[in-house]
Amino acid sequence: MKPPSSTIEIVDVSHRYPGHAALNGVSLTVSPHEVTCIVGPSGCGKSTLLRLISGLETLQTGSISIGGVPVAVPGRSLPPERRPVGLMFQDFALFPHLTVSGNVAFGLRHRPRAEREARVAELLELVALTRYADAYPHTLSGGQQQRVALARAMSREPDVLLLDEPFSALDEQMRRSVREEVVQIIRATGIATLVVTHDPEEAMEIGSRVVVMTDGRIVQADTPLALYHNPANSFVAQLFGELNRFSARVVDGHLDTPLGRFPVPADATADALEVACRVEDVAVLPPGSRPDGIAAKVRRTSFLGSTTRVCLSLPAAGVPEGVEIHARLPGYVPMRAGDEVTAAVDPRRLMLFRAGA
Amino acid sequence: MLRSKIGALALLAGIGVCAGAQAQEVNIYNSRHYNTDKAIYEAFTAKTGIKVNVIEGNHDELIQRLKAEGASSPADLFITVDAGRLALAAREGLLAPAKSEFLDKVVPPNLRGADGTWYGLSMRARVIVYAKDRVKPEDIKDYEDLAKPVWKGRVLTRSGTHPYNLALTASMVAANGEAKTEEWAKGLVANFARAPKGGDTDQIKAVAAGEGDVALSNSYYLGKLLTSSKPDEQEVAKKVGAIFPNQGNRGTHVNLSGAGVVKTAPHRADAVKLLEFMASPEAQRAFADSNMEFPVNPAVQPHPALAALGAFKQDPLNAASYLDHNDQALRIMDRAGWK
Amino acid sequence: MSVAGNRRDGFGLGLRVRRIVAGTGWGTLVSVGLATVIAAPIAAVFSQALTGSSGGLWAHLASTVLPDYVVNTLALLVLVALMTLVTGVACAWAVTMHEFRGRSVLQWALLLPLAMPAYVLAYTYTDFFQFTGPLQTALRAAFGWRKADYWFPEIHSLGGAAFVLSAVLYPYVYVLARSAFLEQSACVLEVSRTLGATPFGTFWRVALPLARPALAAGVGYALMETLADFGAVKYFGIDTFTVGIYRTWFALASPVAAAQLASLLLLFVVLVVALERVSRGRMRFHQTTNKYRALPTVRLGPARTALAWLVCGAPVFFGFVLPAAILLRLIWLGGDEAWDTAIAKPALNSFMLAASGAVVVVAVGLAVIHGVRSERSRLAAVAARVATLGYATPGTVIAVGILICIGAVGAWFDLPTGALLGATVFGILYGYLIRFFQVAYGPLESGFAKVSPNIEGAARSLGSGPVQVLFLVQVPLLRASILSAALLVFVDIMKELPATMILRPFNFDTLAVEAFRMASTERLDAAALPALIIVLVGLLPVILLSRSLNSSRPGHRQ
Hints:
Number of helices of chain B: 14
Order of helices and strands of chain A: EEEHEEEEHHHEHEHEEHHEEEEEEEEEE
Structural class of chain A: alpha+beta
Helix content of chain A: 10-25%
Number of strands of chain A: 21
Radius of gyration of chain B: 21 Å
Order of helices and strands of chain B: HEHEHEHEHEEHHHEHHEEHHEHH
Low-confidence stretches of chain A: none
Helix content of chain B: 40-55%
Number of domains of chain B: 2
Oligomer: heterotrimer
CATH superfamily of the largest domain in chain B: Periplasmic binding protein-like II
Number of strands of chain B: 10
CATH architecture of the largest domain in chain A: 3-Layer(aba) Sandwich
Strand order of the largest sheet of chain A: 7-8-9-3-10-11
Radius of gyration of chain A: 25 Å
Largest sheet of chain A: 6 strands, mixed
Distance between the termini of chain A: 46 Å
Largest sheet of chain B: 10 strands, mixed
CATH topology of the largest domain in chain B: D-Maltodextrin-Binding Protein, domain 2
């Protein structure tokens, strides 16, 4: 298709809007053939970062370069039209006064006519919209509009592709299929791609690397698997799955938790720790079936189709009604409120955070 | 696209039309709006080949424009309808003496600036119009009489702040002093048949229709009604009579239309030529016949319809005094509530 | 890929030479620059107010006429606000939400009074309704009445002035109310019905509050025009602030006191605008849905059709039909004298001024708003706001402000500015720009508000510079808004008198000037013809405007 595209390098970028700081010392590198997802709650600065890379916002501190060429340093900034960047918006921002092919050809105005037409045809074929070339955007479905926006963003063969909440305007059912299509197309081109989303599941699905941001900082950047198993703090951990969380204290070199005693890991330093485990890592077994298990009582269950969610009550010192934990078990589990069970967690699956982190 | 092209063309055309400058021309800032004047300019151009360019506007605005343009002003001649404004323009240093023997000869001394900065061209008298069927002419002799209680609910005027009424009031301040004039204005306001409105013609028509019994009007509006070809206006003319007030004392208030050569005039010589033309019998005839004004040139008689009202004694006109008393007159209007 | 060889040409050039340009700041610069040029003459007038001394004039004004100015102006504003609001909203609601015979005619006929200058209405109504006018004369003749025998409403009164101004200004409220109703989501209105509201309750509690920003804007336009009006109120002898400014300046020859009065007036305008913004507070009026369906219109029976015609027909009658008929009557009765006035050249001049003025004002409006938007600059937004104040400023104040500015610039650079004013239409167009900037800026602003900022972002990142974005994206998208803005400015310029009068070059009469000239020499019959032609020339843009209004419902852009 095309030569490997360039790397985006973001070094120590901070940005203030009147009244609040949007970005606080953010550094990030996105390599070719890599789809990086930035995920975080709204207001975490992820969209600002995208606007800075594309040039729609003027850089204040730090630097941004693409393919080794600085596109923005404080005071000197390439305007958006001079940056090798393809941009796709949440609302698609298609030009309502132009046809589909007019939209795709918008960025190719300076190319010879024949070349332009060939390129438009090629892109429309890529996104499977050839037969809609002369349609106006408002006559298309959301998914089709999405693909027009993608084709348009790629029309100038940018070195990097930036997608801002690309799938949030679509409804649930369509989102899944469109997402797959779009990611396939992007991966095939090998363009360094940065996707901003607020949906962690989406981030895990499409990102070869996921960057978690909050309050204008990057909290963690890693593969989805690493983020899932080794989250940097409970915020990241919670983002990618439901947690049971307890505060725990170190007693005699052991960790006292409602789930039992565990050896303290070598790198734990603080006295007060937060212990967490994912709901799918809690095993629920018949009473007494595991020596390391803890006797528990079922409070309620909900059948969710592919899984069953079980709410258990664990005995705990000083808490007469017990501590509540949740487990998620595959398939249908025939349990009822009041059943006696044993709960167990593999110590390797326990996550420890400093309290308050 | 087409729309904007048309617009751009129109803009260019506008500049082109206006920029067609000629060597022989006179530029006038004029606060008279009469068609008669246009005819006089055309006659002048036909006779001399000198083109006449005109901007019309309110005299105060034109004075502002002259001041703002300063030395680069294209204006050659400033024409206005109020002696006070001529004196003001002269006092502000906007006018220069015309130095014309002809003008000094044909325009009487009390109708021009002493230094020749401005010359009167035509006159009008402020007359009292009355309803023939309800008013005996001998009952009203002076402007001062209009304030007497006998006229309660019978007097019609236009706005007090109109230059015609301001100049009249200024002349009364000059004659009677501020306190007496204010008393008079208050009496006049108390006698109004209705709030002041409309122009002088409207006052005359209202007298004829019975809205009031006496009214102040300029002589030429009366003259125009008297000579109108329209049946309804002829009807009005039949119902009203007019007197020249204050014949037993200082005389009837008159005001001037006049002109002065602008100090920075780029076409000074041609401007003087035009000014002389306007004082010549030919143009004076037009002022008298087409516009019913009294000519300043003694060689020309007023229109027969006005002459038929009789000869009258004029309040000796002192332009500077109008100017000086203008402020007092206006404040009197404010205090008396003559809106 | 076949085009890979020259793929860098698009954006690679700059990268190759490593030239990094400061890409922003231009738009703000242009906006602020233009806004400054627009605000300068008014500022010049103010600077006189602040630096000069008015002697004892203030004491005199305050003890005599100033209270009148304040009371009259406020009363006029309140009356005009009420009358335009009620008329505009009632008509807009009637023709938008109901289906009846003749509705499509009324839809555009309601705009006709836009073409009618307020001062023409003042002249014609006076001529027709005064004691000596045909109506009262006929009444007296028919019943043998004399003056003391009957009462007739006095048109030369505050109420009369408010009536005349409202009769020509209500279309501003009507236009904006109508497009606000058209843009409301049918769902919101239907939800209200399912919650138990009657159609009128829905109107009162949902549609009207939702339309509030539009109504405020419409009434705002009407009030600004009222404040700036000189011709009509002066003719009616109502001492408003504007009349006072004029009189203080010229008759009392005190530019300083006049400028101080003008400053007070503008301060008042700023205050009112700010109050409206504050009272709107945190309410938001965006549509929460973008699903549009045909609005649920109610089909009216014969009785209600007649009522609708009465409601919508009255404003058309008083704002257009009656004055036009009086003009025709004057021309008819005037005979030869009515034709004793130059028409062709003034008409051409008027048309040319209106057309070029519309282009200039709209172009500047576009440039300013583009700058405000493309950089989201506070400074530019504030500057634009200041520039719109000219709309409430009387034309004469603007004209003299321009003269002061041009004089100062000419003296500074030693330029022949007098010749520039005397020979070109530069001065007048400048005056129109100040006076009518808001007229263009308003529609453009609301047009822009409907375009997602991301559209501009997308165009930028697809290689278009700010100027290209303007011409390739914004102008095509805003065609309707640009057309409306241009038409409104066109009609306003056709009617404009005081600034045209004082700023025009030599031998340059317009229809408005010609009408004024004739009226001021008390020849109403000769003034009628140019006045009627002003109206006729203004009709075409007004009808075009109503067409563009009809197609403004969102979701129907193509």
